Amino acid sequence: MNAVTENVSIDASIADLLPDLVALRRDLHAHPELAFEEHRTAGIAAQAMRALGLEVHEGIAGTGVVATLRCGTSARSVGLRADMDALPMLELGRGAHSSRHRGVHHGCGHDGHTSMLIGAARHLARTRRFDGTVHFIFQPAEEGKGGARAMLEAGLLERFRCDAVFALHNWPDLPLGHAQTRPGPIMAAADRFDIVLRGRGGHAAQPQHTPDAILAAGQLVTQLHTIVSRRIDPASSAVLSVTRIEGGQSHNVLPMEVRLTGTVRSFDADVQDRIEAALRATVDGVALANGIAAEVDYVRYYPATINSAAEAEIALAAARAVGLQAGVAAHPAFTSEDFAFLLQRCPGAYLWLGQGRADPGPDGERSLHHPCYDFNDNALPLGVRWLCEVAELSLKRSP
Question: What is the CATH number of domain 189-302?
């Protein structure tokens, strides 16, 4: 195991934690678990919290864990959240700690987030430089399955009251040692649409006898991609992408059914409403013009992640206090995050922590959700220090 490299300034107060955290992070990477199946990971987190003498609650929304650390007499409380799940994708990494579970890969760095939160708990438990309560929230199922919403439905904030909540995500587009966030939207709302076009099917040499669902699908893809550019104010930000088309099994058969799937990303509820309405109208128009039937299933699965202004400033102040080059992000990202559900219920902020594109390798790529992605262990001490500092600063804030 390689230690964290010398090009990162390491706070002496946490240096002794790092070898174990690096080993833990790599162990979690080698044993990834999918949404709501994070039994091993949750067990490791719970055991680590109990070893610190913390109050530990398991099984929240299935595999969620919350550990509580109290110090002093203040009634103020803060929540620190890490996601635990991996992605259903094949890892192509070549490291000794590559995934041992084929088709499951920590391609988004949640192994690093979990390790940093465990490190923060260890540091805060021994320093206790705060007055109040810290809740360490280990959340399942961030990757499209709504684990945060499930924990809220299980009574997370009723059982573990928080005056503010904070989370971070490693960000390969930022250099190591940098951090960004912003008040207001930081990540997009995520919608999914599934469209079924149904004709009657028939011989490809006799198209006059059957409506052509393939032709309708082609027209629909073109028209759907004009919705943002022609129906939405250019000053607003949105993305619509068709990501999958399925239909047909033979070269000489017009299929009876074609299916299309895609995603919409936006930051404003009115824009979201207009896009959904335009999509449904477009599908109806294409279906009518081609003499086919159509069904639309439109699901708004994650809202926009919207930081409260005061907590965004605390997040940036904490980043600067621990030596990160911190700044206000110029624009939100079109990626989505289910921490949004927590921010709908509680003030808080979400931070991008730079990790750079460490050890690019021959493919030259280490972006999130890439098959060769691996978390940069050099970011571990930076995340630990930020989590501790943001908790301490938040608890110092006057009620």
Answer: 3.30.70.360
Q: Is the pLDDT of residue 36 over 60?
A: yes
Which stretch of 11-15, 122-126, 172-176, 190-194 has the lowest confidence by average pLDDT? 11-15
| Confidence band for 364, pLDDT divided at 50, 70 and 90 | very low
Cα angle at 383 between 382 and 389, to 5 degrees? 90
Provide the CATH topology of domain 15-186+304-396. Aminopeptidase (3.40.630)
| Alpha carbon 356 to its chain's center | 18
Distance between CA atoms of residues 176 and 182, nearest Å:
19
Diameter of the chain measured on Cα atoms: 81
CA distances from 256 to 117, 196, 202, 289, 386 (A): 52, 10, 7, 17, 56
Per-domain residue ranges for the chain? Answer: 15-186+304-396, 189-302
- Residue 192, token pair as written in the block: 């999914």
**Please, how many CA atoms are within 13 Å of residue 124, restricted to the half-sphere of its CB?**
33
Q: What pLDDT sits at residue 367?
A: 86
